[in-house]
Amino acid sequence: MKSKLIFTLILILSLSCFYESVTFSQDKKKKKSVKEVIKDVNKKEQTDTKQTDLKKIVEENVTDTNQKNAEDNSKSAAQKISHIIQTKHFYKFGSAMEEGVKVSETHFDNDGNVIEFSEYDSDGSILKKEKYSYDSNQKMTEHIQYNSDGEIERKEVFKYDGDQLKEYSVYSSEGELENKSIYKYENNILKEETLYNSDGEPEAKFVYSYKGDLLISKSKYTPEGALEEKLVINYHDGGKPSEEIYYDGEGSITKKIVYRLNSFGNLKEKIEFDGDGEQVAKTVYNYDTNNRLIEEAQFESDNNLIRKNSFTYNDLDLKTQSIEFDSDGKQVSKFLYHYDSAKRLIKAISLNLLEEPVFELRYNYESK
């Protein structure tokens, strides 16, 4: 498919709700999340311009490292990352304590796919665990979530026909089916999605329409065939969304999201309006001369600031600093990021208003 589909796939397969916002790519690789497996229907990945959290930064670096090793035959298998341990170290008298508390542990397969993620509390006990399984084509087949007692809370199962996702099922902690989605395609393009309840009865049908490679509408129908909701997407030249218009079954607008780009094609503003055309929220994005996101500000309907984040990068385009401000412009948090020679995040230091370190998160990479 054409690269333009990167910007429409975020809209295609929302399983939890009908409304879903589009995010814009900045041409950087990102490790796939669980929901993105569904977007793999058309074999595309995307990243967004929002602030990348620490977990995503780490997984992204691991993926890039493992992919690079896989492509370079001179690299040995031992250089691939097997798992990462994240620990939290508080500062005392200006220095970080060597003894830290385990925060999380992430395990990867040889292809850089996350196969297990565990999160711990301050006592070192597991808060939650997630496991992932993949087929020979590296497509996710199972995602299981466990509670602190090691009991299954939720299970997602993905079934494919070749490269196409054909069925997605969600099971409860008791192992009972909660819902299932079946997907139909024409010429390798998703055309229909039918959602079934736990009794196997259809709850809704989603119909997708395209203009060329671009998704231009998504319609939701009741089991009886009545239109319930509809999303219409318009685009800028170049294939990036310019607006999303949401309608109810009667044809009245319920919501509208407008996307404005700068001269370089980067997302400049995202503005949300209600059904009456009144502004509900706005997010403004600013970039440096290298097209790197350096500021993201969120505003209320009256254009009063809600929060703002600023970002700084080094010459390797790695994020070195992030600062969050509240609605009054006061600093809420500040992090400094440090990397190793392989461009992997190894340390994130939290600073207070006096620029004194409070704690740091360390990342220990284990190779196979």
From TrEMBL:
Keyword match Signal: yes
Source organism, top-level taxon: Bacteria
Keyword terms: Signal
Signal is among the record's keywords: yes
Signal peptide per UniProt: 1-19
PROSITE patterns the record matches: PROKAR_LIPOPROTEIN
UniProt-recorded name of the protein: Rhs family protein
Organism field: Ignavibacterium album (strain DSM 19864 / JCM 16511 / NBRC 101810 / Mat9-16)
